[in-house]
Design a protein that fits this description.
With about 230 residues, the chain is mainly beta. Helices cover about 5% and strands about 55% of the residues. The protein has one helix and 19 strands.
């Protein structure tokens, strides 16, 4: 009974082993986990160790007594000191679930924070050249408009979306017959037509100019005389 009580007392002491903080030296050394060592803990502890010992057992060897030597193993507790480094995350990193992870102050919308203030963008987005924290949507075209998500544009005023060409086309109120709308309310006329700036429309040309007639198509006149 006495030996059992003593063993329990020893185990209780081991469970309450004392840790003492000792700063042996501060270093700026880094590891692959984005940590730096800022000091050390010296821990006073007891650890179990296996120990081999010899046990001599008396045996009856018939007319005489003899000894049998047996090797046995037992667990003993030995006091020792363990030096444990103290880490902190490098600048630009924070601890999350025991791991030093990079910090991106805008939470890296549309991407993943892979380094301090540096986002790796999702498919369909690209890094902003002026700010690697931002991921901007990518559109094929979108001239005269704003890319609001991958390949989706909102056109500027006086422009309209052409889904077939995937671009923003200018709007001309006259629709530019016999020509092409090249800018808001600005037509470029086909060959043998000229722009009537008052009507913002392309009118046919007749050469030479006809008197008392109306040019109804290139080099084709209609008489206006009675």
């Amino acid at each position: 009974m006495y030996s059992i009580s003593l063993l329990n007392a020893v185990l209780a002491i081991v469970c309450l082993s004392v840790s003492t903080f000792v700063v042996i030296g501060v270093t700026d050394s880094e590891d692959d986990n984005h940590r730096v060592i800022i000091g050390y803990n010296r821990i006073m502890m007891s650890e179990p160790q296996n120990e081999t010992y010899i046990e001599r057992i008396r045996k009856n060897c018939g007319a005489r007594m003899c000894l049998e030597i047996v090797n046995r193993t037992r667990t003993v507790w030995k006091n020792g000191t363990k030096i444990v480094p103290i880490y902190k995350c490098r600048d630009g990193y924070k601890e999350l679930n025991g791991v030093c992870t990079p910090i991106c102050t805008n939470d890296c919308e549309y991407g993943t924070c892979v380094a301090p203030e540096h986002c790796e963008c999702f498919v369909g987005y690209a890094s902003d050249e002026n700010d690697l924290r931002n991921c901007n949507p990518v559109c094929d075209g979108c001239e005269h408009g704003k890319c609001i998500s991958p390949n989706i544009c909102t056109c500027n005023d006086d422009y309209q979306w052409d889904a077939d060409q995937n671009k923003c086309d200018p709007i001309c109120e006259s629709n530019c017959p016999n020509g092409k709308c090249i800018a808001p309310n600005k037509c470029a006329c086909n060959e043998n037509y000229h722009l009537d700036e008052t009507l913002n429309s392309c009118m046919p040309e007749c050469k030479p100019d006809r008197i008392n007639g109306q040019c109804i198509s290139p080099n084709r006149c209609q008489s206006t005389s009675p």
